[in-house]
Design a protein that fits this description.
Double-stranded beta-helix; 7-stranded mixed sheet; 3-stranded antiparallel sheet; alpha+beta; globular
């Protein structure tokens, strides 16, 4: 089953056609998709009206799936399978969450530039997001190319960043929007984890920035200086020439490589339903050895 990839942005993002992801894929196609995501970082599969089971089966061809963590509180009732992240504005009864809903307020942090699961010691490799219901306007997802951003940095800045280790936690990202409604148990479980600031992408051999709103400290650096550096780098890396905006249609599935991209959600009318289902493939190993 041959696939066709059309580039959608000058430096990254490819649209893949010639596939039906509801059907089992042979290894040759999986290899072709792997080659394509190594080249394009973000792949758009239009017209894939898949179920959660089909999405999980496809995602598992690329590695082990993470289980989602939406809340550590014992009263949390999930709407979807534990291997499906519920990227929606719906509660467990499929009703739109009210404006003061705790999980809605927490999810507003997804509008910050981030890399999925960078707050876990073993971060995410791939994310796959499927559009089940979309609002009439807004709710786009933007992606930023961290390999192209690295390439564009001055040599002096590259030398400064090599070898730096950041600390990531959702406590940092949510504090940026004023969300602090955490239990003590949650705070303990969300202790900061170390991540390198510069990665070498294994599928391409290219270097990449590893940025995220979850990053709030740099080891060996005073916190105000570290935060200013991270803000400057994020501003640089999300300039228009590095960014692709995806306008969703029902049936779209978008797959991206968290090791060399950042992404963020955009605003929409939350009286309308936006129902997106995400599977996340673990990278398998930490970016910083445990002993560090």
């Amino acid at each position: 089953m041959p696939i066709t990839v059309q580039q959608l942005h000058p430096v990254f993002v490819g649209q893949v056609t010639g596939l039906d992801l509801r059907e089992p894929l042979d290894q040759e196609v999986v290899v072709a998709i792997s080659d394509a995501i190594n080249r394009y970082e973000v792949l758009v599969f239009p017209g894939q009206f898949i179920t959660d089971e089909q999405q999980m089966a496809f995602s598992r061809r690329f590695g082990d799936l993470e289980t989602t963590v939406r809340a550590y509180r014992k009263d949390f009732v999930p709407r979807l399978d534990p291997h499906i992240a519920d990227i929606s504005n719906l509660d467990q009864n499929n009703s739109v969450r009210p404006k003061d809903d705790r999980l809605r307020l927490n999810a507003l942090g997804n509008r910050l530039w981030h890399s999925d699961s960078s707050f876990k010691r073993v971060p995410a490799r791939f994310s796959l997001l499927s559009a089940r219901v979309v609002p009439s306007e807004g709710g786009e997802t933007q992606f930023a190319d961290m390999r192209a951003a690295w390439d564009a940095l001055p040599d002096r800045m590259k030398s400064r960043l090599e070898g730096l280790i950041c600390e990531h936690t959702q406590l940092f990202s949510r504090a940026r929007i004023g969300f602090t409604d955490w239990s003590e148990e949650e705070r303990e479980k969300m202790a900061p984890v170390p991540q390198v600031l510069v990665r070498t992408h294994p599928g391409s051999g290219r270097k990449s920035l590893f940025l995220s709103s979850h990053a709030g400290r740099i080891r060996g650096m005073e916190e105000p200086e570290a935060r200013m550096l991270l803000l400057d780098l994020t501003e640089f890396a999300t300039q228009p020439q590095f960014v692709y905006t995806h306008k969703w249609a029902v049936g779209d599935l978008v797959m991206w490589d968290n090791r060399c991209t950042m992404h963020r959600a955009r605003e929409y009318d939350e009286t309308q339903v936006r129902d997106m289902h995400r599977t996340t493939v673990s990278d398998g190993v930490p970016t910083v050895a445990e002993a560090a």
